[in-house]
Specification:
The complex is a heterodimer of chains A (191) and B (195). With 191 residues, chain A is of the alpha/beta class. Chain A has helices spanning 2-23, 54-68, 133-144, 172-182, and strands at residues 42-45, 75-78, 85-89, 95-103, 109-117, 122-123, 131-132, 160-161. In chain A, the strands form 3 sheets. In chain A, strands 3-5-4 form a 3-stranded mixed beta sheet, covered by helices on one side. A two-stranded parallel sheet of chain A has the order 1-2. A two-stranded parallel ribbon of chain A has the order 6-7. Residues 23-28 of chain A have low confidence and may be disordered. In chain B, the strands form 2 sheets. Chain B has a 5-stranded mixed β-barrel with strand order 2-3-4-8-7. The chains are: A alpha/beta (191), B alpha+beta (195).
């Protein structure tokens, strides 16, 4: 009788574990996974497609490098011919940045475009009445990497940003999120 | 004991098969699918009320989705050469106005456009942005100052300014912390911000 009960408990435990792994539910973090990732652990990014000034391109490149250095097994590779690019867009005054992620027929990410708003004041030096462009790109590139919005205010992937607010460093919640999707890079450093 | 092992193995096999079928079904559902996610300015309830030029109570009667083409722009909002376009899905809702809380409106209906929708087999989801569904009764904070979803005469929902009404109560919205807020209480709060 005891053996039977133990066996049933073992089966139930196994089934619950499989369900949790399948859903990729995290009970300790706040990051969210959109459920759609890149097929490979790298993608190309084009920060030169639109006429952004040199400072904005540097900010975008810095944001790219920070995700590359997060310790996750994923790499953004610069390529000025890639269809994954950053652009300007006419957006309502309350939208600071917007990312569109397109999926292929297998559900993998195929293409990404991030937009800055032509009506929003941005800066690269933390001006109090402007939005910090590197913080915006860091957030938008998180969407490229399959992260949704986090409920942790300090996280880069929090859904809102204030004027003058600097979020140029990944929060542990962002790092946990990206590592949970792409795994941990075995040999550190940017590729 | 052998029976238990056989039953256990059979159950596990069925269970694992079910998981694979579910995953496959999920994959099939997400084919031809796009997601847009915004980074929003941090705005309070009062900010949203003050910034909206029209606030109404109404019923969503029809919703239609279609493609628009967006051109690559420079920082002034002008198309860059050579012109490069990107397709996106938008929706337009026909909303019958029951009451105007802020602003002026002569028409009985308004057209409200928003990002996302479904055209044929293609779906675009706008995360954390309001969408309208046929049959909903809503309070909408609207704006028509920026035409960001194509040409034409239409309104857009400002920020997270959509409040669903169910049995005369307001459903959960990030802009209001109170639970069980009635429609009249919400209207009163709006009028207090914008007397």
């Amino acid at each position: 009788m005891v053996k039977k009960i133990l066996m049933i408990l073992l089966i139930v435990g196994l089934m619950v574990s499989v369900i949790i792994l399948n859903l990729k539910v995290s009970f300790v973090s706040s990051y969210t996974y959109t459920g759609h990732r890149w097929k490979l652990n790298c993608t190309e990014i084009n920060i030169f497609a639109t006429p952004f000034n040199q400072e904005f391109q540097s900010a975008a490149n810095s944001a790219r490098q920070k995700w590359n250095q997060s310790g996750a097994n994923f790499t953004f590779i610069l390529n000025d011919a890639s269809n994954n690019y950053i652009d300007w867009e006419i957006l309502p005054s309350n939208i600071i940045g917007l990312t569109q992620v397109d999926l292929d027929s297998d559900g993998y990410i195929e293409n990404c475009i991030s937009y800055l708003n032509v009506y929003i004041p941005y800066s690269t030096n933390g001006e109090p009445n402007c939005y910090d462009v590197e913080s915006v790109f860091l957030h938008e590139f998180g969407h490229w990497l399959s992260l949704g919005h986090s409920n942790i205010y300090q996280a880069v992937m929090f859904r809102e940003l204030l004027k003058g607010q600097l979020k140029r460093a990944l929060h542990q919640d962002d790092i946990n999120g990206i590592k949970s999707i792409y795994g941990i890079r075995k040999q550190g450093g940017e590729k | 004991m052998k029976k238990i092992i056989i039953i256990t193995l059979s159950l596990s096999l069925v269970f694992v098969s079910l998981i694979f079928v579910t995953i496959k079904a999920k994959r099939e559902n997400i084919a031809n699918y796009s997601v847009v996610s915004p980074l929003l300015e941090s705005l309070s309830f009062d900010d949203v009320i003050k910034s909206s030029n029209l606030i109404i109570v109404g019923d969503v009667e029809e919703v239609e989705s279609y493609y628009i083409e967006k051109k690559m722009l420079n920082e002034k909002g002008e198309p860059v050469e050579p012109i490069k376009t990107h397709k996106t899905i938008v929706s337009e809702a026909d909303v019958k106005v029951e009451r105007v809380i802020k602003g002026e409106l002569k028409e009985e209906r308004v057209k409200v456009r928003f990002l996302g929708g479904k055209v044929g087999e293609e779906t675009m989801i706008a995360c954390d942005l309001p969408e309208l569904i046929k049959g909903e009764r809503v309070v909408l904070c609207l704006d028509n100052s920026i035409k960001y979803i194509g040409e034409g005469d239409y309104w857009t929902i400002f920020h997270l300014g959509k409040f669903n009404i169910k049995d005369n109560f307001i459903e959960e919205n990030p802009l209001v912390s109170e639970k069980n807020l009635t429609l009249e209480e919400l209207i009163s709060r709006i009028q207090n911000v914008n007397p």
